[in-house]
Structure formats: structure tokens, C-alpha cells
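Minutes, project huddle
Topic: does the predicted pose make sense with cytidine-5'-monophosphate bound?
PN asked that the exact inputs be recorded in the minutes so nobody has to dig through chat later. Recorded below.
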Amino acid sequence: MTPITVRVPAKLNLQLAVGPPRADGYHDLVTVFHAVSLYDEVTVCPAGRDGVTVTGEWADRVPGGQDNLALRAVAALRAVLAGRPGAGSRSGGSRSGGGSGSGEGNVQITIAKRIPVAAGLAGGSADAAAALVACNELWASGLTQAELGRVGATVGSDVAFAVLGGTAVGRGRGEQLTPALVPATRYHWVLAFADGQLPTPGVYAALDRLRAARDAQPGEPDLDAELMSALRCGDAALVGKKLSNDLQPAAISLFPALRKTLAAGLELGALGALVAGSGPTCAFLAPNAERALALAVSLSGAGVCRSVARVSGPVPGAAVVPAGS
Ligand code: C5P
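Predicted holo structure (C-alpha cells), as shared on screen:
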């Protein structure tokens, strides 16, 4: 059986408004997700047992075994499919992927990693989303994008968005998505990758601590109407001014060098700057592709980050790469 390869983007949060901690340990969010053109490629093929191999610059930082989100996504999809009416007869009860071509058999997952790990870009969630889309194809399961998103949400808060892509408002843990009705404006970004990682739970905990120390308990998070209006106008300068991330002070408290990185990008002409998600990647919005190139060159010369990448958005979510391309 031919392996299936899926390309999946990283995400930025143009707004990330975080409410108080919930009883389950998560925080209610209102966020504006934005998929950008930095991709992992995930290939699945039938195998004797489930396994994952990772290649690329960040490979040694990706967890293996059951801590790997792509493997967990495959297990979650298999469980959902096994619960569907007629599942037993469809799969013939077979768990072997050894080329039989039937059922939800075992798979070998290969991740070509370009999205840095624990960097605030939802790289792990992206791989989970890609594994879902790939197995849906490999097993001819016929789940819709929305159904795959719901399976993904059981694996991680950002997985549903990586399936959907584009620009979308996320609520709840981030898994309740509404595509943003905005024109097809292309935004040009420079990403500054940090020399280090930040664990997402640690950044949320730091935010709770900072708020407690200031006795500043947040209300329910709200969508920024001005950001949405800037996106509807396709006005990059205004979008740049309205970028916001409640996790940014927490990320900076844990990784103080980010302050210098953000300041450098703004001095070098970025329309706006923010920490990506829980960090430590910083994202800079440029007025156009040319200025993004100049900004990337200057930032990498300024010695304020490990490396830089130019990306644009929005781009579609996880999608199968046509065979032979
Ligand atoms: O859902 P996911 O596994 O990506 O979340 C990782 C961690 O980030 C959670 O365990 C939690 O500590 C934190 N988180 C949160 N509120 C959210 C999303 C994530 O507190 N809405």
C-alpha cells in the first residue's frame, strides 16, 4: 500500500486572551489562530506495530512512544472508528497493517520536522493533526474535517486548528473553532527561534502566579473587535498594532532574553511583534515580502535569536501531498 504524506502548518495566535484557571486545570481562551507556511511533513504506512521516527533539525527534542502526540492521535482515531456501527465487520477484526489493506491496522509514522519543538508554534499538535488526516486517508475512514477536529481535540487543544488552518477564532480550550470571515490578504512574518524551549503548562502556571501576585484576577476573555476589524480590512499596519498575547509577560518572566528580541524586531521596522503562543519563538509582522526579507537578515545579524524564518499566512490546514509531488 502506498504511504500517505500530509503537510501541516505551524500556527500563530494573533490574539491570545486567557481567562482564569478552570477546575480541570485548563484555561478558557479566546484566540485568533493563524496558520503560517512553516510545515512539518508526516508520512504513515502500514507496519507490524505502531511506531514513530522523526527526522530534521529538531528531531532529538520530539518525545517518542506514547508521549508522542501523533501516535496518541492515531490511537484516538482508531478508538473512535472501532466504536462506529459495523466497525467489527469493516475491519474484519484485523489489527495487522501488514499490507492487508483492510481495517485500522498498525502504522509507522515518519515526521519530517521543521516546526521547532516546545516553541509556541503548536508543532506537536500539527503532527497529531497530520497523522489524523493521513490515517483517515490510509484507512479510507471517510471522516469529515470537523470530525477529525473533534478527535484531535481529545489529544491537544491546538490539534483541531491544525486540521482546519486559515485564520479562525478559537474558544474554550482553543478547540471550539469558527473560521474568520476575512479577505484573502497575505501577511508576511518573520519568526525568531530562541535558543531554548518553554513548556506550555509552565507558562500558563507562570501567568497564574503573576496575576495572583498582582491580585489581578481576569474576567472571561473577550475577542478583540479592533483586531477583527483590522483583519476584515486587510490592513497589515493595524493588525500589527493590535497583536496581543496574555501569555507574553509569563513567557518573558521565564525567558527574559525575549524582551530584547521583541524590541530589536520593532526597532528594525516590524509593524508589530509578539511572543508566539506560549513562546519562546517571537513573531514579527512585516509590511510586505521584501521588508520581511530585510527584517529577517537584520534580525539574524543582531544576535538576538538562534535562527530566523520567513513565513506567510494564512495557509490551509493539514492536507495530503499528492503522490509523486
Ligand atoms: O491541550 P494541550 O495538551 O495542548 O495543553 C497543554 C497544557 O497547556 C495543558 O496541560 C495546560 O497546562 C495548558 N493549557 C491551558 N489552557 C488551555 C490550553 C492549554 O491551561 N486552554
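Observations noted during the meeting:
- The pocket of cytidine-5'-monophosphate is lined by residues 25-27, 29, 156-158, 173-174, 200-201, 204 (CB under 6 Å).
- Residues 91-102 have pLDDT under 50 and may be disordered.
No decisions taken; revisit at the next huddle.
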